[in-house]
Amino acid sequence: MSAAFPGHPLFDTPEHLPNQIERPWDYPSLQTFMAKLPPRCHDDWEAGAQFLMRHTTTTGTYSQFRGEVQRFLNFLWLRREKTLSQAGGDDIDQYMALVKKPLLSWATPKAAGRQRGFVTRQGVRVANPKWRPFYDAETRRKDATMSVVVASLNIFFTKLVVSGYLPKSPMIESTRKAQKASKSEHSGNQKGLGTIRKKRTTAPRLTTFQWSYVHDSVMAAANEDSRYERNLFVIVTMKALYLRVFELAAHGSEDSDDYVEPVMGDFGRTTVGNRNYWDLHVCGKGGKDRWIPLPASYLDYLKRYRRYRNLSPLPEPGETSAMVTRVNSETPIKNKRQIERIFEESMMLAVNRMIRENLHEAAEELRQASQKTHLLRHTGASMDIENGRQIRDVSEDLGHESAAFTEEVYIDADTAKRYESGYIRSIV
Are residues 28 and 82 in the same domain? Predict the structure, then answer.
């Protein structure tokens, strides 16, 4: 490494990380660097590596987390002479200042281009002498950049707290001002000028209470009138499999290669490990394919819907029956607006039931929500995360490029607790 920069890249690419953890001697320059640090720094490295191992299947997310974790550890160990267990709010504030204005010796010049951290030399992985933690020290960091930095560190520290490695997150003691881009980069709060309230980015969703009413109301309607079997299938499929509205209907131009018509043959069996599972193939936004594993409990709904349509209990390979059809017909639904109408009708079944039970405020809230067609997708993902499903698994089934984005949009448990504790405070 250049003498101008005393640090070292810490984590290799996702395909190399497992070997780096198992065979540290294959990284002699890193071993030499770590040997000069206090023993607790080795524990910090191990904690960072185990955190990153959870994200190796999502390249974009891994790169974001890896960059932030190894930047912060280099800063903490070398600039602050501390370990993670000693980090506090002041250290986070100082790190944010470094992010906004990196030291020249800590940044790769723009003219040199982005540099990989490790290269192979004589069969081992060694540090690339041109690598630096930051890129282009001359570019100002915008609010969007700072938001990603803060979100990444928040997730990292939260995982360390949950695992028991840290007693609390040092982000709690960091100042909000330090986490924002410098004031000159954006307008805001000038004397005499009003500011626009920033919208929360969390996805709209149904509460558990609302979803139960929707599900049970549609189930009751289907039990009384079979034409609502289609409604039950649609809402359960959208919620359980995180589907966008258009993904249940034919989409694309019929005379082009991008035309997609969902059929029952999109359901299939796959073998993973020693077990067989059912999944659904979906062609989603941008023509991106994904295969979504079916919950075991979902199969009962699928069988019920197929029985209503006089089909065999479960789909067969190559089956061409349309996924969703018109009532009492095998004519496929051709546009997403028809799916939206099924969704809206289902929501209104629950709204009307609430009105009959004198839950007028709840009914009005649900009526307004009936216009948000992504609601069931968001509800299913949020509930599954709350119930302990891994973020990266939910992210892949949603079709997101980044698990970090999924976490930012769907994880809001701390905020929910804060609002609840704020709501029940006493004035006197």
Answer: yes
Is residue 113 exposed (0-12), middle (13-18) or buried (19+ Cβ within 10 Å)? exposed
Position 162 scores a pLDDT of: 84
Residue recorded with tokens 């609390």 = 168
Provide the residue type at 116 as one letter. Answer: R
3-class SS of residue 113: coil
Domain that holds residue 96: 17-185
Phi, psi of 279 (to 5 degrees): -145, 170
Closest CA to 228 of 320, 348, 377: 348
**Exposed, middle or buried: residue 409 (CB in 10 Å: 0-12, 13-18, 19+)?**
middle
Domain shared by 237 and 138, yes or no: no
How far is the C-alpha of 113 from the C-alpha of 105, rounded, in Å?
15
pLDDT of residue 185: 40
Count of the separate structural domains present in the chain: 2
Average pLDDT, the chain: 85
Q: Greatest CA separation found in the chain?
A: 78
198 domain-assigned? no
Question: Pairing mode, if any, of strands 124-127 and 289-293?
Answer: unpaired
pLDDT tens digits, one per residue of 238-270: 999 999 988 998 877 777 667 888 999 999 998
> What's the token pair of residue 109?
């010049």
174: its two tokens: 């960091």
> Does residue 91 fall inside a structural domain?
yes
